[in-house]
Amino acid sequence: MSADLDALYQKIKEDAEAGGYHLNPDTEFTKSLIAGLMKNEERYGYQACPCRLTRGEKALDLDIICPCDYRDPDLSEFGACYCALYVSDEIARGEKRAVSIPERRPVEPSGHHEEEMELVSLKGLPFPVWRCKVCGYLCARTQPPEECPICKAKKDRFERFI
Predict the structure, then answer these.
(1) CB 94: neighbour CB atoms within 10 A?
(2) Which sequence spans correspond to the domains of the chain?
(3) What is the pLDDT of residues 35-65, one digit of tens each?
(4) Is 0.85 topped by the overall pTM?
(5) pLDDT tens-digit readout, 70-85
(6) Cα separations (Å) of 38 from 99, 110, 121?
(7) CATH top-level class of 125-160
C-alpha cells in the first residue's frame, strides 16, 4: 500500500502544482488524507473527501469527489479546503496555519436533484462567471480564483463575464 500511497501522493501533488494549487506541507498529514481518498475509492469506487460523510452513491456525492466543489471558495475565504489537503500560498510557505472552517455542503439532499437542476438552469447560473483576461479561462463561483489554473495570472486579472 505504501508504494500506491506514494504514487498517488506524487500524482495529486503534480496535478495540484500544475493547476496553481498547493498541497498541505505536512507530508504525513497529507498522506493520511490521501490514504482516506484511497479507502473511499475502495469502498465506493470514487475518491470522496475523507473528511466528509459520503452518501455512498456517486451521483449524490459528485460535489465531494476530490478536489471537491468547495475547494476554491474555501481556499479564497479561509486559505485551506475543508480537510486542509489544499492550502494557500501563505500556508504552504509556513507563514500561516490552516484553521478549522465551516462546512459548506448542504446537510441532506432534497431528493429532487433533476428538478433542482432544471430550476437552476431556468433561473440562470447560481454564481457569477469570471473570465481570465489573459487566457480566457472561465469559472462560475462567488469570487475569481487567487490564480488562474491555466496561465497562472493573479486574481486581479479576472473580470466578471456574466
Answers:
(1) 9
(2) 2-92, 125-160
(3) 999 999 999 999 999 988 888 899 888 899 9
(4) no
(5) 999 999 999 999 999 9
(6) 24, 28, 34
(7) mainly beta
